[in-house]
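Co-fold these.
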Amino acid sequence: MAADGPVELRMHAQGGTGVYRRGVMRVVSVLVLLVTWEVAARLAGSRLFPPASSVFRAMVQLSRSGQLPLNLAITLKRVALAFLVSMVLGSALGLAMGLWRWLDLLLDSWLTMLLNLPALVIIVLIYVWFGLSDTSAIIAVALNKLPTTAVTLREGARTIDHDLLDMAKSFHMRRWPVLRHVILPQLYPYMFAAARAGLALIWKIVLVVELLGRSNGVGFELQVYFQLFDVTDILAYTLAFILVVQAIEWCVLQPLERRLGSWRTSH
Amino acid sequence: MVRAAAAGAPTRIMANIALNVKIRQKCRGSRPVLGALGFQLADGEIVALVGPSGCGKTTLLKIIGGLDTDFDGLISWRGDQRPRIGTVFQEPRLLPWRTVRQNLALVLPPDARAGADDLLHRLNLWIFRDAYPAQLSLGMARRVAIARAFAIEPEIVLLDEPFVSLDPEMAARCRDLLLDAWRRRPTAALLVTHDMTEAASLADRILLLSAGPMRILTDVTVPTSIRRNGVAAAAGFAQQLAAMAGSPGATSALPDRQ
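Predicted complex below.
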């Protein structure tokens, strides 16, 4: 075992340079995209295809006026709530369906139906039935995401190691510690997969929901600029949006995943 | 038909008996796995169950451990409460996302915290206390599983082939360490194995089992002269037993039989 020390160190060193090189490549790839965009837009010279520099300027202006941060915050709140509701309910449902066969048989066709229901239909029906409110908006988004989360977690629940459950039972572990320390760690990869795919989907659907039935938020603003054919401001909002999503990916999701998966990389 | 039951069961249990097993039958589907069999386990006694692989030993341990309640028979113990049972499974069954110490801490009752560290020292695991299971060799992981079973300060320990697929040297070391852990607090223990020498070198009594459905062929007491006195001392006795297990009719030829 003592001989493992140096080997481990070397592996860390290699991992270090790999991360560094990946970071550089990422920056280069973004720069190439921006330069290509700038040059192409200048060559085109159309009001409908503004260069990157104008879009950045518009973004700064919209930020200074407070309009962009406010609408972004409103949209983010809706995203967060819909994400939370769909993850908690979807995970619970998927876990239960994976563990109990009868529940799976009972709800499977419902889930399939919900999966295949177009997002727009869900949104319109929820608005019609529950009114044009923030609650309706969040329910509509959560309902769109819930079935895919449930399906992913059901897959995860089916892979749960029953030997470990037997172990927990034989050592008289209580229900909550079993769920927290034996079951959930086996589901983390599935929950992360669901969270990643979920965020990507929810961003998109929240904008549609705002466009159809809210009077603020990024979706609503985009609709206004669409009516004015104001591509520069549309792209400014889009860019701000992308930056926020990336920030969440880098500052929240990835560190969390590393922390929860640290036991996996430590050997 | 009687199923697993706690105290108040019709069987009276003597003061020094930790566990009383009475199985009438256990079927898997329509196939009987366990036939009628019964035995008792006294305090501080190690009893080895030896039989061909697949004869139902693991199933019996699951029944005793309360993991399988679908059987015809009665498992009883002294006192009102189900005793604390520490199990060493055939695979170590450690949680891969928790370190050695965290694995132990998770199952410890509040009154047994201090003993766990002492056991890690005794089983030569202290320097690996913060390692994850994937960083351990199979022999070390097995020892952690043994430490875990003893750390809960059990009244009964169930060991299901705890040394299988270790090389002979490591198996011998693990056996010594197991005895160390056991001597610290001699607990009634049931050891399932298919290795006669292992059984003879660890146990006070050996139950020889037959397959399909499983029954007890004979109940042999290991002579005190060779008891827990190393593999070399046990080898000759084990050979005699093995010969006997091959010919069930010849049980009367057995040495020191009770």
